[in-house]
Automatic annotation (TrEMBL):
<keyword id="KW-0805">Transcription regulation</keyword>
<protein>
    <recommendedName>
        <fullName>Transcription factor domain-containing protein</fullName>
    </recommendedName>
</protein>
<dbReference type="GO" id="GO:0000981">
    <property type="term" value="F:DNA-binding transcription factor activity, RNA polymerase II-specific"/>
</dbReference>
<dbReference type="GO" id="GO:0000435">
    <property type="term" value="P:positive regulation of transcription from RNA polymerase II promoter by galactose"/>
</dbReference>
<dbReference type="GO" id="GO:0005634">
    <property type="term" value="C:nucleus"/>
</dbReference>
<dbReference type="GO" id="GO:0000978">
    <property type="term" value="F:RNA polymerase II cis-regulatory region sequence-specific DNA binding"/>
</dbReference>
<keyword id="KW-0238">DNA-binding</keyword>
<keyword id="KW-0539">Nucleus</keyword>
<dbReference type="InterPro" id="IPR051127">
    <property type="entry name" value="Fungal_SecMet_Regulators"/>
</dbReference>
<keyword id="KW-0804">Transcription</keyword>
Amino acid sequence: MSAITGEVCGSQEPVDLNTIRTFSDRLKAWHTNLPEDLTLASAVRGDCDSANRTAILLIHCAYLGSIILLTRRTYIETIVSRTSMLDGPFSPSETNEGKEAETYSGMCITAAKQLATVVEILRAENRLTRRCWLLIQSAYTAGIIISLDVASRRGRPTFESAFKESMSLIERCITVLSQCGTFDVVAEGLAKILQPIHDTLSKPAMVPGTRRSLYSNPYAAGSPRMPTNEELLAHIVDLLKRPYGGEGTIMDFDNFGIHQQAAPANYRFATDSDFPAYPGNGHATPGSVDSVRSTSASGGHRAVIMAEFHPELAGGRAEMWRKQNNLGHFSSAGFQQH
């Protein structure tokens, strides 16, 4: 997974189908050589030992997550080329590269749906742990990829039969994140990113109108509206293109840019005192100072989820922004609390 992150997701170069093909072959070889009692089918059927089932399901979360990590850039470029007047790097689909890109896009969607199913099994069988980063990442990744698939096919009669199934999978991902969010502020924040997208997809596609928010405050002045499908697609694509960067908000477009002005770079958790006051929009915004918080048992800080990571931090090179007086720091010996 780290190699895929470094050579595919973390690369600033255009997507190289040869690189994707190489990693895809390695993943297929690993999966093909699995013993029968370690396969996903065996775990889903309940054939494996119950004590080992959680571990097997989590292994397949990592496997399916690796497929998504490998193919999502290609999937995004394919979506952009379908919905834009400009040809993407893999358009038109009649070319060999275009057809191969479509294949990898299909792999990405299939892996996301399977991943959402595995995550739901872990939840339904009460196998969730308080802070399992693999599970949290899996639930969010599956939910956002399926959301993009639904948004890209929205309004097509041929897609109606699969619409309810896809929406149910997104809802399950949100449920898992919400449950994990009772113990982890990041999971709660990710659930609050997915929920408005799910709610928007549940409504009929809107026609273009005045430039408003994906979710405006219904009690604010003016006439709130749902986003058009083009706006929703652009928002989801932006979330996927910049998982370590951007403003991470799906609220008022008019408020875009405020958070980057108010917050320092390279952070994930910070205290209220670290942020200057900024004009609110009347409601909490994922990624803002008003957003998800939790108080530590030691009576110390309140952690705030933020999303303004720089793109160059992809590949595990990010360091958590912290304050020495109350957040502690990481060292080779582990986390040290002051």
